[in-house]
Amino acid sequence: MSTARTAQPTPDLTDRRVLVVEDDATVREVVESYLGAAGFMVDTATDGFAALDAIAQRTPDLVVLDRMLPGIDGAEVCRRIRRTEDIPVILLTALGAPEDRVDGLEAGADDYVTKPFSPRELVLRVQAVMRRSLTEFAPEAPFDIGPFHLDPSARIVMRDGVALSLSTREFDLLAFLLKHPRRAFTREELLRAVWGWDFGDLSTVTVTMRRLREKAEDDPARPQRLCTVWGVGYRFEPGEGT
C-alpha cells in the first residue's frame, strides 16, 4: 500500500506560545528565560488550577508541566487538558521515579524531561514536539483497513463507524501501524518513527500502546488487531480477507 507524502517546509516557531506550569520559582524563571531567548512567548502558572484557567483564557501551542504541583498534580492536569484540548504536553518528572513518567504518559503527555535537567535540552524538546505537532503534510486520501477507517489529513480514525477519541501520540502510533499492516516493529523503531526520538525510554511506547488498546480493541487484555510480537514488538493485524 502506497502512502507517500510530501512534507511542507519546517514551521516557524517564532512567537509560538508556551505555558510553563511550575511551582518552584527558580526553575520557572530559568525555563521562562531560556524559552524566551529561543523566541517563544511564555506564560506561567504556579499550580494546576491556575494552569487550567490560563489554558481556558488563551490556548497555548504547548504546555511544559511539572509532575508535582500543589492543588492537583501534573498528571491530573494533563488528563483534564486531554478532555477538551489536543495541546502537546511535556511533563517534568522527578529523576529516579519511573512511576511518575508512566503515570504522566498514561495521562496523555507527549514527552517528558527528568529533573534535574538541562534548560537547553528542554528547549530542544519543546522545539521538536512543537514542530511535529505543527508540521502539515500534503493531503492523504482516507482509506479503510480491517475495522478501521483512517483519514490522515483530518486526523480521524473510526472503528466500525465510531470515531475514536485519541491523543496526538495515540493517533500517530495507530496511523503508522495501519499504514504498515502485518509488519512487526520493534519498540525502538516505533520510538524513531512515531516520536522522532533516536533514543529514549521504551516504556513510552509500551504505555501508549496500552492506552491505545483500551480505546481500539474489544478486549484490551486479548488484543486481536494491535498484536504483541513476542521478542520483537508490535504489529497491526487487519484480519482475514484484508
Tell me briefly what this model is.
The modification 4-aspartylphosphate is found at residue 66. This protein is of the alpha/beta class.
Keywords:
about 240 residues, alpha/beta, Rossmann fold, Arc Repressor Mutant, subunit A, 2 domains, five-stranded parallel β-sheet, four-stranded antiparallel β-sheet, 8 helices, about 40% helix, about 20% strand, disordered N terminus
Descriptive notes:
This protein is α/β, with parallel strands linked by helices. It folds into 2 domains: 17-134, Response regulator (Rossmann fold, 3-Layer(aba) Sandwich), CATH 3.40.50; 143-236, Winged helix-like DNA-binding domain superfamily/Winged helix DNA-binding domain (Arc Repressor Mutant, subunit A, Orthogonal Bundle). Helix content is 39%, strand content 20%. Helix 1 (25-37) crosses helix 5 and helix 2 (48-57) packs parallel to helix 3. The N and C termini lie close together (12 Å). Residues 140-238 bind DNA.
Please outline the helices and strands.
Blueprint: E1 17-21, H1 25-37, E2 41-45, H2 48-57, E3 62-66, H3 74-84, E4 89-94, H4 98-107, E5 111-115, H5 119-134, E6 143-145, E7 148-151, E8 156-159, E9 162-163, H6 168-179, E10 185-186, H7 187-195, H8 203-216, E11 226-229, E12 233-236
Parallel strand pairs: 1-2, 1-3, 3-4, 4-5
Antiparallel strand pairs: 6-7, 7-8, 8-9, 10-12, 11-12
Helix pairs in contact: 1-5, 2-3, 3-4, 4-8, 6-7, 6-8
Protein name: Response regulator transcription factor
Domain OmpR/PhoB-type: 140-238
Domain Response regulatory: 17-130
